[in-house]
Amino acid sequence: MGALICGLVAGGISLSAPAQAQALEFGVYEGESCPAGYTPLTPLDAFWTFFARCDELPYSGVFRIADGSSIDGPWNSCQQHADDTRELDYILCKPNYQLFEIDGTTFAVVRGGDQCLEGFEHVDFATASAYSDEICTHVGYWGIARIGGGGSIDGVGYGCGVRATDSRELGDAICVEIE
């Protein structure tokens, strides 16, 4: 899966813009789905990211965004299209993970799926158990995340419990960088 990563843009926000309106870090990926740890830009994300900066997209592309929508490249002034049923070659994705460190080891909580980022693997049961108090604070207060071997770890609201096996489908994953 190829990617073109575009940098985070810092800057002012129009006083008439909603407080959450801002440009986002994004990547252009081949295909119709984002890789593990990424989620499609919403139409609102795309609007604010490319408002007055349309030239940051590749010129002639048409790009999938969330909710079945798409956005044109600069060739068509970054116009958005709702309910675009065409099969598109590219998708715009934003990071949906958080990195954290414990005793010099890098971990990641990946939101919205049970897959790990490239270069990471699910944390094993022994490590999750040993560091459960630190890891569970990143899971989400009422969250439950997948760990290695089909296990899970609870968030603080559930007492930071760790299970060696858990057959439920879970929406997040706890991963550790592969050494």
Quick overview:
The protein is an alpha+beta fold and 179 residues long. 12% of the residues lie in helices and 31% in strands. The protein is built from 3 helices and 14 strands.
What does this structure look like?
With 179 residues, the protein is an alpha+beta fold. Helices cover 12% and strands 31% of the residues. The protein contains three helices and 14 strands. It has helices at residues 43-50, 125-130, 132-139; strands at 3-6, 26-30, 38-40, 62-64, 70-72, 80-81, 90-95, 97-102, 105-110, 120-122, 144-146, 152-154, 162-163, 172-177. Strands 1, 2, 3, 4, 5, 6 and 7 form a seven-stranded mixed β-sheet that branches. Strands 8, 9, 10, 11, 12, 13 and 14 form a seven-stranded mixed β-sheet that branches. A hairpin with a 7-residue loop joins strand 5 (70-72) and strand 6. It starts with a strand and ends with a strand. Residues 5-19 have low confidence and may be disordered.
Features:
seven-stranded mixed sheet; alpha+beta; 31% strand; elongated; 179 residues
Per-chain topology:
Elements lengths: L2 E4 L19 E5 L7 E3 L2 H8 L11 E3 L5 E3 L7 E2 L8 E6 L1 E6 L2 E6 L9 E3 L2 H6 L1 H8 L4 E3 L5 E3 L7 E2 L8 E6 L2
Parallel strand pairs: 4-7, 11-14
Antiparallel strand pairs: 1-2, 2-7, 3-7, 4-5, 5-6, 8-9, 9-14, 10-14, 11-12, 12-13
Instruction: Please give the largest β-sheet.
Output: 7 strands, mixed
Approximately how much beta-strand content do the residues carry? 25-35%
- Share in helix: 10-25%
Count helical runs: 3
In round numbers, the mean pLDDT is: 88
Morphology call:
elongated
Q: Radius of gyration in whole Å, from Cα? A: 19 Å
